[in-house]
């Protein structure tokens, strides 16, 4: 078997088969959307998720393909069936400047129908950015899916819809709209913010920059090289901190992601990191704590990043996400692929049973290595909570940002980030 084939084998996403019947799961999701279009956010504000007909949306190029789904850019929208009684008011509300005020006016006048139409109109009017790039993307099942495979994929997409409707965090992708019909209907889709680089692609770029900096070390201007390398480290820690913040937010809501990997993390137009693909996510029982374990579907996720207890189909909980984050954080720092030469069998023998882990760089500060070790620990009760992980990353990121002060004109953006980190620590 070629090395490339081995890598493909180990990186396959192992999708779960639902423990409940497909019908029961879909009915639960559908009931959720009927009773509450979007659960309360941090401000106890219920937000309507706009619903669209398929004929209203025009698609462009394919942005990505998953195991069961396809994501395409939305080039434009042409809304249909707007009641004449509302149409004139809606046409006057196509600006984002006073959206909240206008939303209140429309809701007071026309109820939830007015809110839904205004949100639809706002998305249609702002479908393109000023530079002509598409703002939104549409995710739907692959047309080639049949039988049981299609049922499982439909459950994944329905579960993702439900989870994204429950959460609101700056580093988690937002669901902006959805198909007007129920999840049972053919052609069901969700509308998401468009992302650009995945973390996997970003890591390749980081590695190229590292190689460039290293090759420049023999030149006289070592101070500049040090500044550039420090800036790169700050970028990495910013990404890791924001990602940890997103996972901590999920865990506070008792939600496990269960498939944390570079392919499921992207960057938006502002270069903010975003966690996406919640098809394997699981909402745990009320009162669940970081190291609690539950009887859940085994082998859910991607083998390379999967906690040993998940691979072995033992009980597990939110700490499995912490393990995945530990492997991922090592990859962010090293810019190398973990377990790159491991077949699935070798991975099971060495990583799951014999507790082998990627080699830590001896040049890394002990704090970094300790953090990683305390994330990917074999024993569940030895792993940190995501709150602790976020605190440690925030402190390290803050210190890296201090190094950035005065390096060059781009330091301003890092000072801004540093200030927000400082506020974080004062609050906590």
From TrEMBL:
Residues 57-401 form the Protein kinase domain. GO terms for molecular function: ATP binding; protein serine/threonine kinase activity. It comes from the Eukaryota. It holds the Pfam family Pkinase. PANTHER family: SERINE/THREONINE-PROTEIN KINASE TNNI3K-RELATED. This is Protein kinase domain-containing protein.
């Amino acid at each position: 078997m070629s090395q490339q084939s081995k890598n493909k084998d180990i990186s396959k996403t192992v999708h779960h088969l639902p423990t409940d019947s497909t019908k029961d799961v879909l009915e639960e999701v559908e009931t959720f959307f009927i009773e509450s279009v979007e659960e309360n956010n941090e401000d106890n504000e219920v937000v309507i998720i706009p619903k669209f007909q398929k004929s209203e949306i025009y698609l462009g190029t394919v942005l990505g393909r998953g195991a069961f789904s396809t994501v395409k850019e939305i080039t434009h929208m042409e809304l249909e069936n707007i009641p004449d009684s509302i149409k004139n008011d809606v046409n006057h509300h196509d600006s984002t400047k006073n959206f909240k005020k206008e939303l209140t006016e429309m809701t007071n006048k026309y109820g939830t129908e007015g809110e839904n139409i205004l949100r639809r109109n706002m998305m249609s009017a702002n479908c393109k950015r000023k530079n002509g790039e598409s703002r939104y993307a549409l995710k739907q099942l692959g047309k080639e899916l049949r039988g049981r495979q299609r049922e499982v994929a439909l459950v994944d997409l329905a579960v993702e819809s439900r989870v994204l409707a429950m959460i609101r965090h700056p580093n988690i992708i937002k669901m902006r709209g959805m198909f007007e019909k129920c999840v049972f209907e053919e052609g069901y889709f969700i509308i998401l913010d468009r992302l650009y680089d995945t973390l996997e692609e970003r890591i390749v770029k980081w590695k190229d920059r590292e190689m460039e900096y290293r090759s420049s070390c023999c030149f006289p201007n070592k101070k500049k090289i040090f500044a550039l390398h420090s800036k790169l480290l700050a970028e990495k820690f910013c990404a890791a901190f924001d990602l940890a913040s997103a996972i901590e937010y999920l865990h506070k809501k008792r939600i496990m992601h269960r498939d944390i990997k570079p392919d499921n993390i992207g960057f938006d137009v502002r270069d903010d990191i975003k966690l996406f693909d919640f098809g394997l996510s699981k909402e745990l029982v009320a009162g669940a704590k970081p190291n609690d374990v539950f009887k859940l579907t085994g082998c859910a996720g991607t083998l390379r990043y999967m906690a040993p207890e998940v691979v072995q189909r033992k009980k597990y909980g939110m700490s499995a996400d912490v393990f995945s984050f530990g492997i991922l954080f090592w990859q962010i720092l090293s810019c190398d692929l973990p377990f790159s030469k491991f077949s699935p069998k070798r991975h099971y023998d060495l990583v799951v049973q014999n507790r082998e882990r990627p080699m830590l760089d001896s040049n890394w500060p002990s704090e970094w290595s300790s953090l990683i070790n305390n994330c990917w620990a074999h024993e569940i009760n030895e792993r940190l909570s995501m709150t602790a992980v976020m605190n440690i990353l925030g402190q390290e990121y803050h210190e890296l940002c201090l190094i950035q002060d005065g390096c060059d004109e781009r330091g301003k953006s890092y000072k801004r980030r540093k200030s927000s980190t400082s506020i974080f620590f004062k609050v906590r």
